[in-house]
Design brief:
36% helix
Length: 94
């Protein structure tokens, strides 16, 4: 299934890249590999992410070792990435 990033998600990704590159440049490749794993997983198994209780149409996948969560919504024709949220900040209100 095709994955489409919203402007918010692209801005989140750019912010994450900038922050990681400044603080831990050696980690950026591993972060991007994890992002690719998440994209592959949800494109093959769109319903695999955790449903959010407050918004059942939105699903999430944690980045694991990194303080980020990938939020997305599944439509009939594509997957829409809503945010890539840094969990170190206050919780995102989906």
């Amino acid at each position: 299934m095709r994955i489409i990033y919203t402007e918010d998600a692209l801005a989140d990704l750019e912010t994450a890249h900038t922050f990681i590159l400044q603080k831990w440049p050696d980690v950026l490749d591993m972060f991007d590999r994890r992002l690719g794993e998440i994209e592959r997983m949800i494109s093959e198994h769109p319903e695999s992410g955790h449903k959010l209780l407050q918004r059942p149409s939105v699903r999430s996948v944690p980045f694991g070792h990194y303080p980020y969560v990938f939020f997305y919504r599944v439509s009939h024709s594509h997957i829409e990435v809503l945010r890539i949220y840094n969990t170190s900040r206050r919780p995102w209100r989906a």
